[in-house]
Amino acid sequence: MNPNLHSSPEHEFEAQLGLPEKLPKGESILWQGAPDFKAVALRVFHMRALFIYFGILLAYRLFSGIYDGDSIASLGMSMLWMTLLSATCLGLVAYFAHLICSTTLYTLTDRRIVMRIGIVLNMTFNLPLKKIQSAGLNVGQHGVGDIPLKLDEHNKIAVFHLWPHAKPGAWANPEPMLRCIPDSQKVASLLSDAWAKANQVDLAEQTVRAAKTDAPVYADVQSGHSGLNGEIKAA
To answer: Does residue 195 contact residue 132 with C-beta atoms inside 8 Å?
Structure first.
């Protein structure tokens, strides 16, 4: 991870990179990372589908113009404008994906997960491991994957505050999600170990429920542990 990418002027007052204040004594950072640009563009904004859509529009205009007998000059100018507009739309979507990746930073410590998100309005969500009921893992190509976090029933974060860092389809009970992170399998392993230690749980005694993945990897651990401390809050 390039630290300069995530330490732009709007974040210069952070006490520590990705954190609104310095970690308490005795707490250590296990991992920091951000979404992968290519994965965000393809999975979140469906750039591949947009390319196909604009390609179909251009092909339709070309063949309809030939069928209607449009002049070469008229058809060429029309195709040029449509190509420029299509490229502009795709460029704006790609730029938005870049902004999401460059302003997002996920931090995993031995006690919590901190999500610094937001393009215009930066927010930092503090998620103590003791308030996380379960975590899933959905691995895509090249090891880039998503890790949704199911919070206990007394803590909810509005999906509109989280998007796109939220599990798709979980509207009633929004689940924060570490989105499109590289080497997600390694991060999930670090998270499961830290979660088990924080909750004083033996993972071998817990129920493991497989999530939808593209590879046979550890997916989901359910906890019946109810001892909670810390606060889930936005800074």
So the answer is: yes
